[in-house]
Structure formats: structure tokens, C-alpha cells
Amino acid sequence: MKVRYRTQSGSESTAYLDDGEGDTRTGADKYTDEPLTVRWDGSKWVEIPEEPT
What we know:
Blueprint: E1 2-6, E2 12-17, E3 24-29, E4 35-40, E5 45-48
Parallel strand pairs: 1-5
Antiparallel strand pairs: 1-2, 2-3, 3-4, 4-5
């Protein structure tokens, strides 16, 4: 699914998210193809920091 989201720096971008259930999804930024994780905050998708491995 294609969505607008707020980046960690506070700007907006577009991402393609994997289909799934729940408020947290993974995907990739449309322009940079960088992987990302976003969470639905009730009104918009917001990028969340990647967990260190």
C-alpha cells in the first residue's frame, strides 16, 4: 500500500508498505528505496527508529 508518512526528521515522504495487520508496518521509501518501519498514530503514519541488532 502507498502512504504518506512523517520522517524521523519531521518532513513528509511517501512509502510503499507491506500488507499486514496492526498499527506498525514495514516497507520502503518511494524515492530512496531505503527500508523503514512506520506506526499509525491515529491520524498519520510516523517513521519509528530501527531497532539495533
